[in-house]
Design brief:
Mean pLDDT: 93
Distance between the termini: 39 Å
CATH topology of the largest domain: Dimethylsulfoxide Reductase, domain 2
Radius of gyration: 23 Å
Shape: globular
Structural class: alpha/beta
Number of domains: 3
Strand content: 15-25%
CATH superfamily of the largest domain: Dimethylsulfoxide Reductase, domain 2
Helix content: 25-40%
Number of strands: 23
Strand order of the largest sheet: 16-20-17-19-18-23
CATH architecture of the largest domain: 3-Layer(aba) Sandwich
CATH class of the largest domain: Alpha Beta
Low-confidence stretches: 1-10
């Protein structure tokens, strides 16, 4: 998300989900929407069925959305920047870009134009495998639309070039005047139900709530006054940096809340070593996860149905969460655990309810200023909503960008950190399946999802399986430079030749033993989507 910061501020969805009903073109890249965001995918499919929208899919896998696509660009994994630059090359060369919009609302166009000049469709085909004519067709369809929306997810961000990928999406949208209009935008689909809300509230190492920089002295002074304590202006660490620091002995204690890095982080062997080197590990969760089993102290917390509060969903919409049932045993709401712990440690938190915390949020978080409990009883509200009279903001940047002019950023293609070779001839990509959620902490304990999808599968192209003499349902070993896992093979055209796909939901086949911990230098996100592996009969 950091890649959108210069032009877009927060890296949130610029537009709302309902606008997919009225847009003319939807470009979905790096998002297996039907399995990861099924509610949103239903809007996409409905728009295509009605004939109100054309769909462009950019994805190495033959995902379900391909059935609805007017054009499918099947790029090699990790070549997203080349493909996006190729689209912009065609749009600029054929004069299809929004000239007045570019002139009046953006800067940096000439540098972008110079950079994408060499990314001709033929040059991009050599890099990505996307046929030149298909690239041209997609570019023309996107550029000629009156309104066009870009959807992306972790297939774009989970690369060493994730920030560059996001910037390239922003470049394409601005080039065609699709930011700041209804039915347009650049729309990241968040990975969990309240990721947006967590980021909005400052659960990032460089921000206070509402993306107010911790390095800004005025902002620091404001929060010091409200919270009655001295605060640090030092930017903190990201999760992968924390693990590396723990491994090096630079971090001695760690508090993990609602996260299961022993399944979700790359290179799990390294993660386990890092956690075991800690003097003190605290895990706060609703179940005894793989990470919690390593903890010195486990704090049981309430699930979504057992607490009051708010969630902010992927379209920036703040909605009320209401307690339906009592939490079991000693479990408490997360805010209660944090408050009680803080009080015991000497910093007094006086909150008696989640509503009192929201009252404080209204004071210190400008974009949430008018999003009060009273209003949320009746309806959800999209931020920014600065005052009690404001109706919320359906789409961002209507008249100007948060920084003034939208900034084009010239991006060159950089290959993935690890590519196939003679020893590890396949590319592995990871993701999710419809019936399971993240590390399986909840769905792995639920009878229904486990009946529908009971075990991990290795998706492999039938042509590759034939070369390896592998059969449907056969147990196979997948090995990388970091580890090996054994799981059942399924032969499918969904995976391109030379690539395999595995989900990361099952502790019995922890795919993140294999994945590469190489980081995006800006966003610090690991390259989950591309690593080199070998596949053989188990």
């Amino acid at each position: 998300m950091a890649g959108l910061a210069t032009s877009f501020g927060s890296g949130a969805m610029t537009n709302s989900i309902g606008e997919l009903d009225s847009t003319e073109v939807i470009l979905a890249t790096g998002t297996n929407t039907t399995e990861n965001h099924p509610v949103i995918s239903s809007r996409v499919k409905s728009a295509v069925r009605r004939g109100s929208a054309k769909l462009i899919v950019i994805d190495p896998r033959k995902i379900d959305l391909v059935k609805y696509a007017a054009i499918w660009l099947r790029q090699k994994p990790g070549t997203d920047v080349a493909v996006l630059n190729g689209l912009m090359n065609v749009i600029i060369a054929e004069g299809l870009y929004a000239k007045d919009y570019v002139k009046d609302r953006t800067e940096g166009f000439e540098a972008l134009k110079k950079t994408v000049e060499k990314y001709t469709p033929e040059y991009v085909q050599k890099i990505s495998g996307v046929p030149a004519e298909d690239l041209k067709e997609a570019a023309r369809l996107y550029a000629r639309a009156g309104t066009a929306a870009i959807l992306y997810a972790m297939g774009i961000t989970q690369h060493i070039t994730g920030t560059d990928n996001v910037k390239s999406c922003a470049n394409l949208a601005m080039l065609c005047g699709n930011v700041g209009i209804e039915g347009g935008g650049v729309n990241p689909l968040r990975g969990q139900n309240n990721v947006q809300g967590a980021c909005d509230m400052g659960a990032l190492p460089n921000f206070y709530p509402a993306y107010q920089q911790v390095t800004n002295g005025e902002v620091q002074a404001k929060f010091e006054k409200v919270w009655g304590t001295n605060l640090s202006a030092k930017v903190g660490m990201t999760i992968m940096e924390i693990m590396n620091a723990a491994h090096a002995g630079q971090i001695r204690g760690l508090y993990v809340m609602g996260e299961n890095p022993m399944v979700s982080d790359p290179d799990i062997s390294h993660v386990e070593e890092s956690l075991q080197k800690l003097d003190f590990l605290v895990v706060q969760d609703i179940f005894l996860t793989e990470t919690a089993k390593l903890a010195h102290v486990v704090l049981p917390s309430a699930c979504f149905a057992e607490k009051d509060g708010t969630f902010t969903n992927t379209e920036r919409k703040v909605q009320r969460v209401r307690k339906a049932v009592a939490a079991p045993g000693q479990a408490k709401s997360d805010w209660e655990i944090i408050r009680d712990l803080s009080n015991r440690l000497g910093y007094k938190m006086p909150y008696k309810s989640a509503r009192e915390i929201m009252d404080e949020i209204n004071q210190v978080t400008p974009s949430y200023g008018g999003i009060t409990y009273k209003r949320l009883e009746k309806e959800g509200l999209h931020w920014p909503c600065p005052t009690a009279e404001h109706k919320g903001t359906k789409f961002l940047h209507k008249d100007k960008f948060s920084r003034g002019l939208g900034l084009f950023q010239a991006i060159e293609y950089v290959p993935p950190a690890e590519l196939p070779d003679a020893e590890y001839p396949f590319l592995l990509s990871t993701g999710r399946v419809l019936y399971h959620y993240h590390t399986g902490t909840m769905t792995g304990r639920a009878e229904g999802p486990m009946q529908r999808y009971p075990e991990s599968l290795v998706e492999i192209n039938p042509a590759d399986a034939a070369k390896l003499n592998l059969q449907e349902g056969q147990m196979v070993k997948v090995r990388s430079r970091r580890g090996a896992v054994t799981a059942k093979a399924t032969l499918t055209e969904r995976s391109p030749q030379g690539a395999v796909f595995m989900n990361f939901h099952f502790r019995e086949a922890m795919v993140n033993l294999l994945t590469n911990p190489a980081l995006d230098p800006v966003g610090k996100i690991p390259e989950y989507k591309v690593c080199a592996v070998k596949v053989e009969a188990a």
